[in-house]
Design goal:
By secondary structure, this protein is of the alpha/beta class. It is built from 15 helices and 10 strands. Helices cover 44% and strands 14% of the residues. An 8-stranded parallel β-barrel has the order 3-4-5-6-7-8-9-10, surrounded by 4 helices. Bound molecules: iron/sulfur cluster (SF4) (2 copies). The site of one iron/sulfur cluster has 14 residues, from helix 11.
């Protein structure tokens, strides 16, 4: 399988890599089967996080100690102080059943930690590296200015950031800057959180941007086999693919909910990361299941919004979430009446 050098880490990772967030939703036996099939097929890079419930444990169970040296594992800690990051790392080592993590990433910090403070999350990473518990230091983010600051700081070996063919010019510049600085670029949201449906178009995009390593979120054998089959094909731009990409760009440009979930929990329990993009889900997926009683009730919960503004302050895309939700509710009601 073709590999990409992940910047100054010099790690050679497969250009089709594995995002292990979705295997949380898969029963353990099946998750292990999927991970082993990925391994047997040559995928060598697996990205997880301590906050992805049992994702780390499933990885730990799938890859036996003899397989460990053949895989590169990145995980994340959302800790913002020394003690928490060290605690998260020790938990990750136990769950993944390993004595080292290849890349430990600070998980979406709202600001960069002070590298000189003895209490900081960054100092925890430095010490963990000295102790041999981690090999490289990474950071993930959804905010462009923080991602740029992280690159400028020179303190991180890798940056993980959303990147796909809907990305803006400034985001393409970020990828270029990362490459110029020899910092590994890990692309999350390669399918924009499931809104991009054409895997061939997505795979082609990464062939055209080969310094970015996509970690495709995989939750079934079928999805895995689709990526594996694309891996072995030459992918050319065709008029059909051009059309799909143009339609996606037109329909999904601008400010839309990426379903990252950083705005949650909502003060009154609204399922924001689904509700805030209901218009796109209704028009880009089979819509019948979205009109079920459960989904209807989920959408009606928007009426309970107390306008506390919490979600708005947390959204890394600076969306006006309460108003977006109100728009989604109106759209949903109209769609429901027409199609139920
Ligand atoms: S503003 Fe509304 S949707 Fe946002 S957190 Fe508060 S109650 Fe929830
Ligand atoms: S509203 Fe913002 S923070 Fe919440 S899921 Fe959507 S993009 Fe993420």
């Amino acid at each position: 399988m073709k590999k990409i050098r992940l910047g100054r880490t010099n790690l050679m990772v497969t250009r089709t890599s594995f995002g292990a967030l979705p295997i949380q939703r898969v029963p353990e036996k099946e998750a292990i089967k999927i991970l082993r099939h990925a391994y047997d097929s040559g995928i060598n890079f697996y990205d997880t996080a301590n906050m992805y419930t049992d994702s780390e444990e499933k990885i730990g169970k799938a890859f036996t100690p003899t397989m460990r040296s053949n895989v590169i594992i990145s995980t994340k800690s959302g800790g913002t102080d020394y003690k928490t990051v060290k605690k998260h790392l020790d938990n990750s080592l136990v769950k993944i059943n390993t004595d080292y993590i290849d890349i430990l990433q600070l998980h979406n910090p709202t600001e960069l930690p002070d590298p000189d403070s003895n209490d900081s999350s960054y100092k925890a990473l430095i010490d963990a590296k000295k102790e041999g518990k981690i090999r490289f230091i990474g950071i993930t983010n959804h905010k462009l200015h923080i991602a740029n600051l992280a690159l400028d700081s020179g303190l991180y070996d890798t940056l993980q950031f959303p990147f796909n063919y809907l990305s803006t010019e400034a985001e393409f510049e970020l990828v270029q800057k990362s490459s110029d600085l020899d910092i590994g670029f890990i692309a999350m949201k390669a399918l924009s959180g499931g809104l991009l449906k054409n895997s061939r178009a997505c795979a082609l995009f990464f062939r055209q941007n080969p310094t970015a390593v996509p970690i495709y979120g995989i939750q079934s054998m079928e999805e895995l086999n689709e990526w594996l089959s694309l891996e072995n094909q030459a992918i050319e731009m065709t008029p059909e693919l051009e059309h799909t990409i143009a339609v996606d760009k037109r329909e999904l440009s601008g400010n839309f909910c990426r379903s990252c979930g950083y705005c949650m929990p909502c003060a009154v329990g609204i399922e924001i990361k689904t509700a805030a993009r209901m218009d796109m889900l209704l028009r880009r997926s089979p819509f019948r299941p979205l009109l079920s009683d459960d989904n209807y009730n989920m959408m009606m919960k928007i009426n309970d919004c107390i306008n506390c503004g919490l979600c708005k302050t947390r959204c890394p895309y600076e969306l006006d979430v309460p108003n977006l939700l109100k728009r989604m509710l109106e759209d949903y009601k109209e769609f429901y009446e027409l199609n139920k």
